Amino acid sequence: MPRDKVPSDTTQRKVLKAFRKLGFEILPHKYGKGSHRMVRDPKTGQEITVQSKVFKQVLFDYCSKVSELGYDVNQFIKHL
């Protein structure tokens, strides 16, 4: 995926919303550490930690993870 398609820095709230729209489960605060939150893929049960400050490089890493799990990265970016 070209880096220019990934938006620059965004908020944790927008990233969580994008994961939720793809079908991920947002776990309660007790599963995150401090200001971090966790999301779980319903197909595999794999968990992803979402930082409170989401920089472009971290967002690119989330896009890679979404792709590895078989989801459409363009849909993920569209929901941000």
TrEMBL record:
InterPro entries: HicA_sf (IPR038570). SUPFAM superfamilies: YcfA/nrd intein domain. This is Type II toxin-antitoxin system HicA family toxin. It comes from Candidatus Buchananbacteria bacterium CG10_big_fil_rev_8_21_14_0_10_42_9.
